[in-house]
Amino acid sequence: xxxxxxxxxxxxxxxxxxxxxxxxxxxxxxxxxxxxxxxxxxxxxxxxxxxxxxxxxxxxxxxxxxxxxxxxxxxxxxxxxxxxxxxxxxxxxxxxxxxxxxxxxxxxxxxxxxxxxxxxxxxxxxxxxxxxxxxxxxxxxxxxxxxxxxxxxxxxxxxxxxxxxxxxxxxxxxxxxxxxxxxxxxxxxxxxxxxxxxxxxxxxxxxxxxxxxxxxxxxxxxxxxxxxxxxxxxxxxxxxxxxxx
Length: 245
Description:
The protein is α+β, with helices and mostly antiparallel strands. The protein has seven helices and eight strands; from the N terminus they run αββββββββαααααα. 25% of the residues are buried.
């Protein structure tokens, strides 16, 4: 289940499901923002439901204003996405994910750098998730540098250097998972914790997922990602028990 969910989160396609159920009148989240430089196109707000992208709302920009306002009802903090249809122009930079929570949020970005220039405010969950992403980037940046060195070692057939670099890469990969585990455990009162477990640790030893789930506060356990994590753990345990029969 979660592997399909992950695929949906990481790979955006141009196909969207029909709009989700009508929650008009019960909205507890207001998102206002602007895409500077956007003269014509369409802005979509959507989330992932049962491994499928579901459009929650959309707005046509017709040259008058690049401002947008979306209202939605959240049962609990959740990762939402803005998607940009640029009209006649094309770009791979059309997707922005953010951790939404009930209240008022503001998102300001640009047409030129839709993801990179985005400034999101009004969500403590999003601020916390960005902290995690920054800690993760410190490790992945080192890995990216390492991949260049690995490529050079392969080109020159330097076996000793290649072996050493591969060992370093293995350690960095271990640090990535350890960083995810520690961040989730240190933020057990946030919906970010089970989300990290589901998206970063889904293929790790089940004991790590169990440890994170058992550390969650009662409130988070009953939220969307807490419930999803529990379902995934039970599914993994059934699969592993069946494999060992």
